[in-house]
Amino acid sequence: MRNLKVNTALNMIKTGANIVFPLITIPYVLRVLSANNIGKVDFGNSFVSYFSLIASLGISTYAIRECAKVRDDREKLDTVASQIFSINICTTIVAYILLAISLIAFRNLDSYRTLIIIQSTVILFTTLGADWINTAMEDFVYITLRSVLFQVISLILMFLLVKTQGDYVKYAIISVISSSGSNISNIIYRKRYCKIKFTWDIPWKKHMIPICLLFVMTLSQTVFNSADITMLGLMKGDYAVGIYSTAAKIEKVISQIVSSIVLVLIPRLSYMFDSGEYEKINKLLRNVLGVFATIGLPSCAGAAVMAKEIILIVGGDKYVEATLVLQILLLSFLFSLVGGSFLGNVVLLPSGNEKQFMIICCISTVVNVIANAFLIPRWGAYAAAGTTAFSSLLIMLMLIASIDKRIKIKSPVRLFLAPLVGSVAMSICCAWLKQLFETLWIRTIVCVASGVIVYGIVQILLKNEMVLELFEKRIKIRKEN
Hints:
Blueprint: H1 4-32, H2 35-56, H3 59-69, H4 74-105, H5 113-129, H6 132-136, H7 140-161, H8 168-189, H9 204-235, H10 238-275, H11 278-305, H12 307-314, H13 322-348, H14 354-400, H15 412-433, H16 440-461, H17 465-480
């Protein structure tokens, strides 16, 4: 079993690459392609995501949890992995049948047909790759190296092939290579852990009940994440989608920092919950919440203060309308930090309480869709962002009220005190410094550097546990060397 800190570090490297490469590609693509063409690509992705959801059926999360439980028994792992893979093949076939019917039935999708067909290949590659086996086995070395390699390849192809506004189809193809290349390579690599084969010998009831619960939960999350773009596209057009999706991409880059920690923890926590080690679980959860607060709060606050600068650097003047959208989405990220990310994905899912999480996700999604239907026609992208923030707050409040009494996190308020004070001090510093510099890049660099320094000083003065522990370990390592 790999060291959890090593796994976290490796996944942070992977996440770092996921942040750096979009920071290079997104500004380039936004300037080469028009907001309308960006909107077309993002609408196609949004449409395909529903069928991708049908194919995945909540299987990935379930597979990670179940395979992690039996990873020490090769024979059981072969059996469980093959059964789950076979279910995934069946759901993928159903997804493609429904996709074909929708493309034939809905004539207003004619202009998107080529894009949707290209983007839908991700569904097949994801199923065949069965990448969940690597996560269950905590092989984050392979996952990290492979991910970085295909991102480098995609980056090179992007600069070589995407050169005019009409190259948005090429952009879609390259995006598929970036996300699916890893899955294709995994077809051979996964054999080192288990032999996965198609089988009809499946205990359907055992697997399908939790899978269906996870499916409904994932469906609600997908609708929650995709409804904004889909409804914007239908009600306001491609330009509104382009503005909103630009802000959403930036917010996603920030949230990936948190997602990298969550992915590492699911197999380890599943193993702990299965053995009932609540003392260890509570200790680990407290550390995770501390890391979420220490990293998440300043990231959110800093990006909110520098939102206009970020938009100008990433997309240019024509996307400046996305500034307020980004700030609202960052508020949504702040709520989801404690809600969906921590209480939902880190606490409820590994403990097997997917039904509880599913109900909460469904309620918030219904609220989100209804609110979008009423507000988007009047306020467009701003309304879409606002309903997302409100729904994230709703999820957080419902999750707080439903946590298992055996989960006891010691002094949670203390974990947030130093990061909160530091984030406020950093925001005030950046807001003041912004007034002193006219040049965009100089203003941004000075504000970011000063903000990091101010935040760091506050963490040390207020004795942030996570930061002090990091310093103590570094000093110890130096002394040993």
